[in-house]
Amino acid sequence: MAENEDGAERTEQPTEKRLREAREQGNIPRSRELATAAVFTAGVFALMAMSGSLASGAHGWMKAALSPDPGLRDNPSKLLGHFGELLVQLLWVTAPLVLVCLLAGLAGPLLMGGLRFSGKALAPDPNKLNPLAGLKRLYGAESIGELVKSLLRVLFVGTATGLCIWHGLHDLRTLLNAPLERAIVDGLGFTLRLLMYAALALGLLAALDAPYQKWNWLRRLKMTREEVKREIKESEGSPEVKSRIRQMQQQLAQRRMIEAVPKADVVLVNPTHYAVALQYEGERMRAPIVVAKGVDEVAQRIREVGEQHRVAIVSAPPLARALYREAQLGKEIPVRLYSAVAQVLSYVYQLRAWRRGPMPQLPAIELDEFAGTDGRA
Fold first, then answer.
1. Its membrane topology, per UniProt (predicted)?
2. DSSP string, 155-199
């Protein structure tokens, strides 16, 4: 179990903040085996794809290098220029292969944790100059792990190439008696096949090493419970986190409020900007309670949900505005609005029985003194 400097066990998984800080400092998971396998495999495929052009370029370069102009021997300046031309030709021939390997070398870190350049990682560390710390690293668990990986690399690659040579012994024997051109072609084919076996072995080792390096990286970043509590406390104090928490709480409260609309007996509207949903159960409630209320978009949503669940929608602008301003969500309506709300509920109950008789008339509700002054209709 990992421990910090105080001896406390690191049992908690690293938080997003700790992971982000580690990446900013250049501390990301790395797998040397994955990078090696990526470069080697890309190089082998590049050799296979560009074998024709590489062979032609190499042939021309060797011809120019081994058969120089006899006059160059007595002219040092021309001889130096000839060597410069040979160097440029060599770079031109090998440039595609080198470029493919470079791109593969960048792809390896991208697969693990991305590319991160941090000045902190390049800053001098006095601990690296400490002989005791150096001995600890030399004989530590990570050094033993690297030794084991080196042995596995030799085992995997040696086994793969050995099998390739074993299965190709007959072909190798035939090369001794084959014509020169045929022997060169078959020899290059066997070499590429040998390299492919080695690439497969390195790929298998990388497939084992990459998940281990990711797990080991997360293990080293584990935190104690006190560190997690301290980080949570610090995060809760930031304005961004507080704002996000308030926003989530408001969204949750609004969702719960909308979910309660189907339980309402009536939705009072004004009719466009305000909406208040009331529920009343005479057996267990002293007075109607407000299960939902809102303005503008929220009011429209309350009305839509009410219509979907066949809740009575009653247009009573003064009463709707008064209930919105004075009544609290989840609480009983104010006492002075009992009479007006009772008239509305009576109308709703009569409306439910409308199929058995004449349609009731909406009562005249006198609540002009509660009308809003914000200009909403």
1. Multi-pass membrane protein
2. HHHHHHHHHHHHHTHHHHHHHTTS-HHHHHHHHHHHHHHHHHHHH
Contacts of 352 (CB under 8 A, 6+ apart): 312
Integer Cα distance of 92 and 58 in angstroms: 10
Number of neighbours of residue 375 by Cβ within 10 angstroms? 6
Question: How far apart are the C-alpha atoms of 55 and 57, rounded to whole Å?
Answer: 5
pLDDT reported for residue 21: 82
Structural domains for the chain: 28-220 (no CATH), 258-370 (3.40.1690.10)
d(CA 303, CA 269): 8
What integer is the mean pLDDT of 253-275?
87
pLDDT band at 197 (very low <50, low <70, confident <90, very high): very high
User: What pTM did the predictor assign?
Assistant: 0.52
> What is the Cα–Cα distance from 76 to 67, expressed in whole angstroms?
17
The confidence score (pLDDT) of residue 282 equals 76
Whether residue 39 contacts residue 203, with contact meaning beta carbons closer than 8 Å, is answered with no
**DSSP-derived secondary structure letter, 355:** G
Give the C-alpha separation, 154 to 187, whole Å.
24
CB-CB contact of 269 with 275 (8 Å):
yes
What would the mean pLDDT of 276-282 be, rounded to a whole number?
86
